Every structure is written in structure tokens, then in C-alpha cells.
Sequence to fold (569 residues):
Amino acid sequence: MTLIKTDKPKTTKPNSSILGLSNGINKKTVYKTSARKQINNLDTLPFYDRSLVDYENYHKYIGHAGVKHSVSVQATRGCPYRCFYCDVYKTTLHHFRRSVDNIFEEVKLLADLGAKRIEFIDDIFNVKDKDFKAFFRLVLKNKLKLNFFFPSALKGDLLDKEGIDLMVEAGALGVNISLESGSSRMQKVMRKNLNLDKFYDNARYITEKYPHIVLGLNAMHGFPTETEEEAMMTLNFIKSLKWIHFPYLLTVRAFPNTDLEKFAREKGISDEVIKKSQDISYEDTAPSLTFSQDFTKAVKTIFLKDYVLNKERLLSVLPHQMKNFCEDELNQKYNSYFPTKVKTVDDLLKLARINKSELKKQDFLDEKKLKIPNLNARIREKFPQVKKSPNALKILLMNLSGYFSGDSDSQERKLMEPPLGLIALLTYLNREYQEKINGKIVKSGLDFDNYSEMNKIIKDFKPDIIGIGVMTFYKDFVHRAISSMRSNGIKTPIFLGGPYPTGDYEEVLKDKNVDLCMLGESEITLTELVGKMMKNGYKLPSENELKLIPGIAFSPSENKFEQITDIAS
Fold:
């Protein structure tokens, strides 16, 4: 999972008529086409064209792995597990992997560009142990000087000492593992089925043999049917390990359309509580689904006071962290624990009553050592551009997973990660259509910082279709942004989702401003849609033609933009 602070700004929530969720609710049934067959040979997909975004601009900020100047790679798709809390992607039936050679080829290309930090965004990178070890052997054989980060977590009970040793020797530095619960019963309930003994042994092996490895551990608090005793088992599991660098005890969220949401309702948890859990970040201290606020507060207090602020732990881990992280990277990591009290490591030391002179190391990693000189120019050499036709179909892909800085009440930390999903879509489209399409990728908070700037980009670019990648945390912000587009006279067709499945498409399509949802394998789905648009005067095909495109959902509607005039007035 990605550990990002995503508190919602205290912007007045738009009423349902603005969102198209009142008068705009579509009375017709959502039409879902046949499932798109999964891409089972991921090696056939092109390497991400990194020239599609300004990497130097993104690298000014900390990314989702909690570091700057890293480049993300995705090695797998789908998941062989069906844990009930994250089985959002109902259309993803199988787990597929790129070959070891294919992954290594891309990593080597990035190393040749000057990258020093590689983050794998997969949370199942080590599921196939043989491939996991083979990749690191290739890194060692070719003497690549890299640091690897696994922010989305490795499968902790599938590691072994040989794999850990190889990973560390090859340059692994930031390793996350996900526990969720220290209760064997809860492991069965949530269908994660971790071997807790193996998980513990591996975590202990890393902390004892490789104390410089920045180990993160993700645990959850407040699963339906979880008892107070089981919650304490999870807390004590963490406390028994000396020392985890970044342990997280996160509030359970019942994502829409997951089995966890269904399970919570079956166990008598109200829709109001479930909805509230969906609209908060993992790290918020809002009431859990299950426990009283007093109990949750007590557990979190023990966790922070006895472990996170433990003086012995901090004196042990901070010197390693300061050697491997820039000052602002560490400031941000610790700010996630204490958003109002800790802005800097110095604040942390004061809170823990540690004199800086007690630390074995006094200075942080120099960021200059991480910067990749002339990165954009180097990328363009590896990914030469195709001159676009004056009549090319224009597609604008928007990442709206970041509030505007003007939302001053937001406590969200400014994390910027190049939107790999959108890069994947446009890379594939460019390969298939070359000069016939002209694509552009933009991100909120980076390329535009208010609705006016957003609408100006759209009107200047004049896209024939707009695609928006959606994260649950930002869904209301996304609908507000789309409403702003429509109220400013932008009638361009809009689709949401991709290249991964959109689990909550029925709810999304209640907004009549949205034309389509992509449900999965969207490189191919969008390519097919764009092909049909080219044959249809660059306009969306008819509903009958849309029904023939596998992997989409839409709400048939004759007067799609009938509310625009009312909103504008």
C-alpha cells in the first residue's frame, strides 16, 4: 500500500446537483461490456516512455517511496491473493509477471540514464521466489550501482535468508513488509493467511543482520470482528521487533466494492461509518470501524509513545536513516506520525527528549549526490519523438491525485510521483498510432494549481478526449474538477480509470459529466476506442458501437450535458 498523507481540504463539499448526482443521476442502467481479456505476456508492452513527463520537475519533490530522484518500475500485474480488504479489481483474475530479463533490461536502461534509486511499485514482487533472486543476481553480475525501494511492500513470509542476503547485496535500501494483523484468526478472516512465524523470523533477520536497511512494517487496526485482545496482539508483534525503522499502525478502510465492505455490513457496521472510513487517509486517527474511539486512541498512544518515540530505537535507527536520506525526506517521514507536532527531525528529537549530540551521526545525506544531471535530455535520447500530424487526434490524460495549494486547510504533504498509469496508456497509444495521435499528460498541483489554470490547459490544447486517473482519496476533488470543466463550456468526452480496473464504476457514472469508465487492460481498450473515434470524425462512437468494445462501462444518456447551462448561470 502507498503511505501518503491525504487529508481532505476543508473546502465546502459541492452539493449533489453540481456533481450531477441529484438531477443528474442517470435513470438508465449502467451498461458494462464484456470483460477485456488480460494481457498475459507483459513483455509485449513497451517500456514506459519517460519523456512524456518532465522528470526533472517531479524530482524536485518527494515521491511515494518517500524519496527524491527515484524512478519507478512495475514488474507485475494482478495478484494471486484475494485479501478481502483490497480486492477492488474484480476484473483482474490472474497474476502475470514480466520476465526477469525484461525487468532487468528496463532497470539497466534507467541506470544508464544515471538513475541511482529504483522503486518497485509492486506489492507482490517476491511472490515468485526464483525470479526474485534471479533479478538480483543479474544486478550483481552486471555490477549496477543502485539502491532499490519497495514502498508497496514485499510478501514478508515468502522471503528467506538467501533472498534477503541477495537483495541487500544488490542494493536494497528501503523495504516494506505488510503484516496487517498479528492474529492468526484475523489472517484467516481477511484471507491474507500470512505464516506469522516466518514473517516474524524474516523481519527479525533483517533488523538484526542488516540494521541499515530501512525496514517499514504496515499493520492495520479496526477490522470488523477484531477483538481488543487481537488488536493488542498486533501491537505487541511490532513492539517485539528491535528495531523497525518505520512501523505504521493504520486505520482500516473499507474500500468500495471490496469484500471487506460487504463483510462490515454483514457484521452490523452502519453505512455512515463505512462511508467515513472510505473518505479518510490510512493515517488519520478517525474512529475505526470496530472499536471505541477511546480504545483506538489508547492503542495509537501506546504505539507512538512506547515504540515510535522509544529513545533506544531512535538512537539506533536515526544514524542509518540520516546516512541514506536527505533532510527533507526524513522530515516528511516523521511528519506522517505527528502532523501537528513534528515538522523536522529536530522537532522529533525534542519530542523524544534526545539531545542531537547523542546521535552517532549529525548530518544528512547530501541531495546533490542523488541528482541525475541533464535527466530530461538523457531521456529524450533514449525515447526519440515522432513528429505529429497536424490532424492528429488529441488526447489529454490528467492525473488529479493532488489538491491545489490554494486549499490551505489541507494537511496533505506535497508528494509528486510521475503518473505511471497514464504514461503506460500514452506510451502504448504512441506505439500503435505514431503520428496519428498527439497526447499530453498533466498533473494537478504541478502543471496547474487551480481550476482556471486547468481549464486554460484544456482549451489551449483542444483535446478530442480527456482521460482521468482516479484515486479513492481524491474522488470528490475529481468530480469537482470535472464539474468545473463542464461549467466552463468544455464538452470534450471524459473517461475515468486505466490502465487498471475501476472498481467503483457504477458510482462514478452517476455523474452525468463522465462519459465512460475503463475497467481494465486499458492500453488495448483505449487503443480500440481511439481507433473507432478516428473513423467517426474524432467523436465518440455511437452507444451501439461502444457496446462492442470490451472492458468499458457507460450510462446511456441522450442529453449528456443538459445541466451545463444551469451550472454556468
Q: What stands out?
A: The chain has two domains: 60-369, 386-568. DSSP finds 22 helices and 15 strands in the chain.
